[in-house]
């Protein structure tokens, strides 16, 4: 009886183009909800493994080196030029009404609150998040993850948890570096090139920037670290379809992480400031 | 020791295993033969709990692994070793680190003791001076040997092989066959081998089981399989 009625509904759906249209339109939402659910379950599982021995410090330190130390150069470059271009644009804007003295404070606030954490996270997503997906994806399609299972080692414990911990710890560290060189770049453009008084430039930074601005920026960075590593690992361990599948998963991981970072940035900002 | 009872498994509506029954004899080499894509690897992954059946029981030492949670399953898996089709060595580790991996994870042996066992296991699979090489520097046959050394590192009671000779030349196949026979003789473990290589099957097997359309249609000694009147078995073994 139940089978007949579901069969009847399915036939009706086949005939009714409106129902088919609604089904087609709704499918991406259903997939998005399913994916979100799986990502949250992965987060819960990784979190519980953080508390269970063995604690795998060696693997975590190795990942911290990969996420943090090896990303320093790219963060230095992007951080410096972000601060420089921001100072340049602010100078031209403030000059229109004689407010050049505020360039230092504007750059420092912008960099510590937004540009430092967000650009660092985007650069790390491109360099580290993609590598996480590609590495775990390759391990999945070459049965290395199955091999871990057969050796009684949980892949979430061995592969996912250390990557998430490393990203959460190292993103704020990288952001501190980015904040510092960003303000330094802004100082160089404002004081050395645009000839703003050095004392005023620094005094306004001290006057307007509070420790809370820097601290909230670092909390954001930790959240972005969680997002990029969680999505990077999720896409990796769900990879199917050989080399082509690894390529697709890596692209999806970078796009999804970047979009999620921007969306969460808005909500974190509205909550914090 | 291993018993599969009325196992059913479907993927996306397609039935791969259909009320399959199979009993694996302990301390023997059982080879499961069948067509490519016929569900042999799926069957092997049921035995070690990588795939759970839709229905039926997978009994290992009397315990139904299909009903166990991850933690309980991990305990049961400690009696297993598995050699994957492409060896599934960890790319980021050296050969020595690959073989040492299960020992580091599940024993409290010192580094020196682990190094000695790694050397011993690599020698057992006829490999010398490869400890510091990366898997990418090895040939297909050598990778399988390292995979076997890793699989037997903890002296498991059951070793599973997923098509150990696929993709190897005839000389290398013979080498792997001899290795399987000698290792089983030496360890007295239960070996379950998936294969579609008939020559190799008849060389190494104590028992042969034929998988066809999701069921074991014939099981017996190599001689019994050779003399079988079952038309599918006859056609398959040529």
How would you portray this structure in words?
The complex is a heterodimer of chains A (273) and B (238). Chain A is built from 10 helices and no strands. Chain A is mainly α. Chain A has 2 domains: 1-52; 56-272, no CATH class. In chain A, helix 5 runs antiparallel to helix 7. Chain B has 238 residues and is an alpha/beta fold. Chain B has a domain at 1-79 and 190-238: Rossmann fold, CATH 3.40.50.300. In chain B, the strands form 2 sheets. In chain B, strands 6-7-8-3-9-10 form a 6-stranded mixed β-sheet, sandwiched between helices. A 4-stranded antiparallel β-sheet of chain B has the order 2-1-4-5, with helices on one face. In chain B, strand 1 (2-11) and strand 2 (14-24) form a beta hairpin. The chains are: A mainly alpha (273), B alpha/beta (238). Chain A binds chain B through residues 135, 138-139, 142-144, 146-147, 149-154, and chain B through 45, 48-50, 70, 74-75, 77-78, 80-82, 84-86, 88-92, 101-102, 105-106, 160. Chain B: Keywords: ATP-binding, Nucleotide-binding, Transport.
Topology:
The complex is a heterodimer of chains A (273) and B (238).
Chain A lengths: L1 H14 L1 H34 L6 H11 L4 H24 L7 H39 L2 H7 L4 H39 L4 H11 L2 H27 L4 H31 L1
Helix pairs in contact in A: 2-7, 3-7, 4-5, 4-7, 5-7, 5-8, 5-9, 5-10, 7-9, 9-10
Chain B lengths: L1 E10 L2 E11 L4 E6 L5 H8 L7 E6 L2 E2 L5 H8 L2 E4 L11 H12 L4 H14 L15 H12 L6 E5 L7 H18 L2 E6 L2 H7 L2 E6 L2 E6 L1 H5 L4 H7 L1
Parallel strand pairs in B: 3-8, 3-9, 6-7, 7-8
Antiparallel strand pairs in B: 1-2, 1-4, 4-5, 9-10
Helix pairs in contact in B: 3-4, 3-5, 4-5
């Amino acid at each position: 009886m139940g089978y007949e009625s579901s069969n009847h509904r399915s036939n009706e759906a086949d005939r009714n183009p409106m129902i088919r249209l609604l089904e087609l339109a709704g499918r991406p939402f259903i997939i998005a909800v399913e994916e979100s659910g799986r990502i949250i379950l992965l987060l819960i599982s990784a979190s519980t493994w953080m508390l269970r021995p063995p604690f795998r410090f060696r693997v975590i330190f190795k990942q911290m080196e990969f996420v943090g130390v090896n990303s320093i150069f790219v963060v230095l470059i992007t951080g410096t030029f972000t601060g420089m271009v921001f100072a340049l644009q602010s100078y031209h804007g403030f000059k229109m009404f004689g407010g050049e003295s505020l360039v230092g404070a504007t750059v420092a606030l912008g960099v510590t609150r937004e540009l430092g954490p967000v650009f660092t996270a985007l650069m790390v997503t491109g360099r580290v998040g993609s590598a996480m997906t590609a590495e775990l994806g390759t391990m999945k399609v070459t049965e290395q993850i199955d091999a871990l299972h057969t050796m009684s080692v949980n892949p979430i414990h061995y592969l996912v948890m250390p990557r998430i911990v490393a990203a959460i710890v190292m993103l704020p560290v990288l952001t501190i570096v980015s904040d510092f060189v960003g303000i330094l770049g802004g100082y160089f453009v404002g004081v050395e090139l645009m000839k703003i008084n050095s004392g005023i430039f620094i005094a306004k930074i001290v006057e307007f920037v509070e420790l809370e601005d820097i601290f909230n920026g670092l909390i954001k960075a930790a959240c972005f670290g969680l997002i990029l590593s969680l999505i990077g690992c999720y896409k990796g361990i769900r990879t199917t379809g050989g080399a082509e599948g690894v390529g697709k998963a890596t692209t999806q991981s970078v796009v999804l992480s970047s979009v999620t970072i921007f969306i969460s940035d808005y909500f974190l900002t509205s909550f914090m400031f | 020791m291993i018993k599969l009872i009325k196992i059913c498994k479907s993927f996306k509506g397609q039935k791969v295993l259909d009320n399959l029954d199979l009993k694996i004899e302990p301390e023997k080499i059982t080879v499961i033969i069948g067509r490519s894509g016929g569900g042999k690897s799926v069957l092997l992954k049921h035995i070690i709990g990588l795939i759970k059946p839709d229905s039926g029981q997978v009994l290992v030492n009397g315990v139904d692994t299909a009903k166990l949670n991850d933690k309980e399953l991990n305990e049961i898996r400690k009696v297993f070793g598995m050699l994957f089709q492409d060896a599934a060595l960890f790319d980021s580790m050296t050969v020595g680190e690959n073989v040492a991996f299960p020992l580091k994870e599940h024993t409290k042996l010192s580094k020196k003791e682990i190094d000695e066992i790694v050397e011993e296991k690599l020698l057992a699979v006829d490999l010398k001076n490869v400890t510091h090489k990366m898997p990418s520097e090895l040939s297909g046959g050598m990778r399988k040997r390292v995979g076997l050394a890793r699989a037997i590192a903890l002296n498991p009671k059951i070793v599973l092989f997923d098509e150990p000779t696929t993709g190897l030349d005839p000389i290398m196949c013979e080498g792997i066959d001899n290795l399987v026979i000698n290792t089983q003789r030496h360890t007295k473990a239960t070996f379950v081998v998936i294969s579609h290589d008939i020559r190799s099957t008849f060389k190494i097997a104590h028992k042969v089981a034929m998988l066809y359309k999701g069921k074991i249609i014939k099981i017996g000694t190599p001689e019994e399989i050779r003399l079988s009147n079952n038309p599918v078995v006859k056609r398959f073994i040529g």
